[in-house]
TrEMBL record, chain A:
Superkingdom in the source lineage: Bacteria
NCBIfam families per UniProt: urea_trans_UrtB
Membrane topology designation: Multi-pass membrane protein
Entry's transmembrane regions: 20-40, 52-71, 77-97, 109-127, 158-178, 212-233, 239-263, 275-296
One annotated GO biological process: amino acid transport
Any one GO cellular component localisation term in the record: plasma membrane
Name of the protein: Urea ABC transporter permease subunit UrtB
Pfam families: BPD_transp_2
Length: 308, 402
């Protein structure tokens, strides 16, 4: 597939596709972080994660509309307001869902998967009824438009760069929350040994709810960031859910670093191959390789060393 | 039929449930419905094959596969490829630039038949492939994963990814597979026109016959030691392993069995509906198949049939009158089945209808047929009731795990 390209052309192609893959990477990281927290720490599969993300995206859409009509002078900063709102709304809904169904199903992980799938169907149809089936987009504030010229072949769009910065800062934030804070210590204690954690006075049910809400909140922020690089429709979330699950599983369920590494690997592989093959074949090949590796190494790239 | 005394078996309570299902499918529905509706019921029944497979695989052995659509689709595509080749004779496709190949290949500038289409000229090979291809794929997946002790949600996610891969592949390789439209315009099966009302009615009865065959195979498996090991594996995998059983082998077996059922269902689907497309394979279709099984009762092979019938009938009913409400109903069904009644209709039947039945059975031991009218709503899995003429070896078990 490399026939007919000189080596310098190949280098620029790889660089170009590599930068293009970075925006896919940002989406993967943003979605996968929330999932990794919920799945890795609690063992719960949240099939409605994509729909939480879309909720964040619609929140951003509504906020941008509100700023446009009532506060046009502050329009440049609406995104930050939207991000906070998206986090709060999604986290609140997440906590409610946890209270309503997830907490009854912790001992039945496969059933959680089905129940959250049902939730995702309901949420999707709700979006379709409220916002219509058409995709909606937001207007970017002026400072986010344009691109930075790196070399004469490679240019970086500012919105893509901004989304990547958000993704990485959330990743760093989650890392500090999980490994450097009192809350994170409690979460890890509950993951490692629930009865023992309860015995030393940790409110494990509260930790579960907070963790689920946090994961959903991050999905909301992901959705807010998603509006900067793409438009939002009722079923946009579902399009990414399988890829994101593979990202999380491939990275090793309880490893945040692994999640980021696998998001990077998968997005780069897909974007590079897209140049040489058709888009669908690139995706098929990437997924096949990931599934193949997972069959050979089910614990993922960076697994905790535990005895099974 | 598998019982040592077939006639007596039909008079037992379990036998009566099968008789009731047979009466419903063979007598009542064909009498009550016009050929079009009957054809639709036939379509729903093809999903029941998948649901029976899922009962064995998920309900009994605890392996949730979210990729049953893959096997359903593979079976269906094998059959569709045969029918398509039969429909694309050089005479029928004379206007194409390359006569004798399926029309969509011609549209995609293919000039000869791809190698993997060649064997599907043969009907016997097709019949073999309908079961063989899904079982082979299931074996490869199962062997790779179960020998490495991957299970639970990991297995579910990976099977779901496989469903996604196959769908993208079929849609992407339009020239070889017919793309998003699928393989359409199927006409005859060995010269017999499958589009007439008469043919569709016959196919419906073939479908019912195959369904009962699958039911009896599933019943055979569940009532032997094999079935009990599957259930034991679900509850306490390590204890089964420490007792000396090769857990992976049993899991591979049950996964392949489910794949075989799904493949048969898919092939019948193609015959009854007259086309096959990737939309019956994908993530959404595959996960819907799980709800057929879950609604009927994940431990009941008979319940699976009723679950498939009810969900699909409700789906067509809603889609005809309130299309926008169906996703809400479906979502509520998923959540409700999981939270409120995890044993599905069969569980409800066991809790509420069976005590009534017990009363009737006890009062008139001679007139067993009177219990029958109460059985229309939902059927349970074979009961644990001990009847004197039961061979203890094929006595049903009662699952303690919900």
């Amino acid at each position: 597939m490399f026939d007919g390209y000189t080596s310098s052309e190949l280098m620029s192609i790889f660089a170009m596709q590599g930068f293009a893959g970075l925006s896919l990477f940002s989406v993967f990281v943003l979605m996968a972080l929330g999932l990794a927290i919920i799945f890795g720490q609690m063992g719960v599969i949240n099939m409605a994660h994509g729909e939480f993300m879309i909720l964040g995206a619609y929140t951003t859409y509504l906020t941008s509309g509100f700023f446009q009509s009532y506060l046009p002078s502050l329009f440049g900063g609406y995104f930050f307001v939207a991000m906070v709102l998206a986090f709060l709304i999604c986290a609140a809904l997440g906590a409610f869902v946890e209270w309503l169904m997830i907490r009854r199903l912790y001992h039945r992980p496969l059933d959680t998967l089905l129940a959250t799938w049902g939730l995702s169907l309901i949420m999707q149809q709700a979006y379709r009824s409220i916002f219509g089936a058409r995709e909606v987009g937001v207007d970017l504030p002026e400072w986010m438009m344009g691109a930075i010229q790196v070399t004469d072949l490679v240019e970086l769009p500012i919105n893509g760069l901004f989304v990547m910065i958000i993704a990485l800062s959330i990743a760093v934030g989650v890392y500090f929350l999980m490994y450097r804070s009192g809350y994170g210590k409690k979460v890890r204690a509950v993951v490692q040994n629930r009865p023992m954690a309860e015995a030393v006075g940790i409110n494990s049910a509260g930790i579960d709810r907070a963790t689920f809400a946090l994961g959903c909140g991050i999905a909301g922020v992901a959705g807010a960031a998603f509006t900067m690089i793409g438009s939002t429709g009722p079923s946009s979330g579902q399009a990414y859910i399988v890829d994101t699950f593979l990202v999380v599983v491939f990275g090793g369920a309880q490893s945040l670093i692994g999640t980021i590494v696998s998001a990077f690997g998968i997005s780069q592989a897909q974007s590079t191959m897209e140049f040489f093959l058709s888009g669908s074949m690139a995706k098929v090949l990437t997924l096949l390789v990931v599934v193949g590796i997972l069959m050979l190494r089910p614990e993922g790239l960076m697994a905790l060393k535990v005895r099974r | 039929m598998n019982s040592s005394s077939p006639l007596k078996w039909f008079a037992t309570r379990e036998g009566l449930y099968y008789v009731a299902l047979a009466v419903l499918l063979v007598v009542l529905l064909p009498l009550a419905l016009d050929p079009f509706r009957l054809n639709m019921v036939g379509k729903y029944l093809t999903y029941a094959f998948v649901a029976i497979g899922l009962v064995m695989c998920w309900g009994k052995a605890g392996i949730l596969s979210l990729g049953q659509g893959v096997f359903f689709g593979l079976g269906g595509y094998c059959m569709a490829m045969f029918l398509k080749l039969e429909a694309s004779t050089p005479e029928a496709t004379a206007i194409q630039s390359t006569p004798g190949i399926p029309d969509f290949m011609d549209w995609n500038q293919l000039t000869e038949l791809p190698w993997f289409w060649e064997p599907f000229h043969s009907f016997s090979f097709t019949l073999l492939a309908v079961i063989g291809v899904p079982v082979l794929l299931a074996f490869v997946i199962g062997f790779a994963m179960f020998t490495r002790r991957v299970g639970g949600v990991y297995f579910a996610i990976i099977t779901q990814a496989i469903a996604a891969i196959l769908t993208i592949l079929i849609i992407g390789q339009q020239g070889y597979t017919g793309g998003v439209n699928g393989i359409t315009d199927l006409q005859t099966l060995n010269g017999w026109d499958i589009r007439t009302d008469e043919a569709r009615t016959i196919l419906y009865f073939v479908c019912v016959g195959m369904l009962f065959l699958c039911l009896f195979v599933a019943r055979l498996v569940q009532n032997r030691k094999l079935g009990r090991i599957l259930v034991a594996m679900n509850a306490q995998e390590n204890r089964v392993r420490f007792s000396g059983y090769d857990v992976a082998a049993f899991k591979i077996f049950v996964f392949c069995l489910a794949a075989a059922f799904a493949g048969v269902g898919g092939a019948l689907f193609t015959l009854i509906v007259g086309f096959m497309s990737p939309s019956f394979i994908g993530i959404v279709a595959s996960i819907e198949m799980v709800i057929f099984c879950a609604l009927g009762g994940r431990l009941s092979i008979l319940g699976a049939v009723y679950g498939a019938l009810l969900v699909n009938a409700a789906k067509s009913g809603f889609s005809e009158s309130f299309p926008e409400l169906w996703p809400f109903a479906m979502g509520a069904l998923f959540i409700g089945v999981v939270l409120a009644f995890p044993n599905g209709l069969a569980g409800l039947y066991q809790t509420y209808v069976m005590p009534l039945e017990d009363k009737i059975f006890k009062r008139n031991k001679g007139a067993k047929l009177e219990a029958k009218p109460a059985e229309k709503a939902a059927e349970p899995k074979p009961t644990a009731e001990k009847t004197p003429d039961y061979d203890p070896m094929i006595d049903s078990y009662s699952p303690e795990k919900s």
